[in-house]
Amino acid sequence: MKKNFYAAMLGAGLLLTGCQNQPSARHLWVADVREAIRTETPVSLKEDVASVSYVPLETADSCLISNVSNLVMDDEFIFVENGKTQQIFQFTREGKFVRQLGRAGNGPEEYAPYAIESMTLDSSRREVYLNARQLPAWVYSYDGTFLRRYTLVSQAVGYRFFLDREHVVLGGAPVTPFAQSPWLVALANEKQEISAWKDPFSPSLGQEVRYMQEIQFMPYSASVVAYTPCNDTLFRVTSGGISPAVVLDRRNGKEYYEQIADINYMQTGGASLAGALDLYGFLETDRCFFFRIMRGEDGRFYILRLDKESRKLSSTPVNETFQEMSYGLGDGNIAGLDNDVDGGIPFWPCYVYGDQVRVQVVNTTLLEELREQGYLQHAPEALQTGPDQNPVVIIYTFR
Asked: This protein's superkingdom (predicted)?
């Protein structure tokens, strides 16, 4: 029987990190998530999604994909990491296979096995960055040529996003107290010299026990919003600096915030989860924020929508079948909203393409399981795939 990813996370992995920070910005969205979950109000995709399009990835012996663990795309190409084999495949925007990009190994032009945390495109320079937790990034050209190791930043970098040709946002690498970035997120220039950063740790927490297990990093409209779970504040990074963007009013209790960034509690069973609320993903559009919140007492997921203009916060529970079928992140993740736009798969895009475009990917095994459960009766033809085909990339354009 397949193991439910989120149940496993409840038992072992909710040792997330950071510290509580008090926002200082005047213009700040505040989300009372506890009240929203208690009252439960419907959330419809029709209000926000203008269109949905589908790109089936070509299936060939040279590019077989078991599961997608990373995906980035621009107007020309789609790059995916096959999680099982650690291969990086390049496809056209129409889904036609182009090439494999590099390979895992110990050679001078190969990336280290099991080291890739995320991928980044610098479309203006036509370069692909393979970002690692504890190692410098590997940089390849769009034609597959290995270019260099990016060693200008001495700290570990788990995420990277180019705001423009002069500014890059760096996300921390959550590993251990002795091999991690000293910040949640940082702003750097084109030489990656750091000019601003956000330290997520409380001053009272000793250097020897500081621990960040998870960082969430979401680009949007010439900015990046970053979060680490000990913090009720999501921080926005622009070329002008770093400021609070949203406060998730979780009210998890003093003990939770004290323990969550201390590695000692991870080693002895973790921070107190009774009654805690945790954030498992968010996305931003011109009109709203979406948050996926898990309730610690029973592991139930909720999708919350925060309207930017009215500040109204709506919440709906995730269908229990969708949650049970979500065996991890990447293309096994459908713990999201019912798709009332075109009858497709449950909505939870976790990849970024443009300001008003987000991307989801689904494998054919999951599509088959959804059909067996009685879903996808009126799904688009692109989702009527065979069991041995490569995943389908789903592109949502927002209003």
From this structure: Bacteria
